[in-house]
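Sequence only, no structure available. Ideas?
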Amino acid sequence: MGTKRYGMVIDTRRCIGCHGCTIACKVENNVPDGTKWNRILTDGGDVIDMPAGVFPKLTLSYLPLNCQHCENPACTRACPVGATYKDEETGLVHQNYDTCIGCRMCIAACPYTGVRSFNWEEPAYSVDFPVGDAAVPTHQKHTVEKCVLCEHRVARGEEPACIEVCPGLARFFGDLNDPDSRVSQLIRERTYKQLLPEKGTEPSVYYLV
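Reply:
I predicted one. Tokens follow.
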């Protein structure tokens, strides 16, 4: 096991569904048009920001979704060329565009629908110049993409962009192997859930409820 296991804790009581994390992620990582590494799902509704129930008995809650950076990732076992792999030092699941052959086996193996995307064409952008951090790899045609928890920022000792911009202070990032880290304290003190625990992937994203 690596020296660290970076992960994220999301307080669903504090998430206001502002999509700030989605925008920050797209800008920081120069994510192509039509692709989202971070999404805010509406629990119970069929479309964005749609409440569940029948008026006047409505409920509205949000579920932020991105790559779960699993401790036991199915995607890495499925990739025939090692393009998606787990960094043993940080626990983060990385994606190497130069190695990826576009077979999409990682997408098929991942139980978390929609956290990975595939560039069928050359990545397109709304502006004619790259945005975000200079350390972000160039996006390529016929490759799989996903949230990398801003690995370039983490390498500099910074937090992922989605954590930094959250106005509701609903997102926390840290080392789950460190019992004194904020993320470890939160999952000790609060009730939480993980997505699809029965799949045995041991996701590193915890949702406080």
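The chain has one domain: 6-208.
Hope that gets you unstuck.
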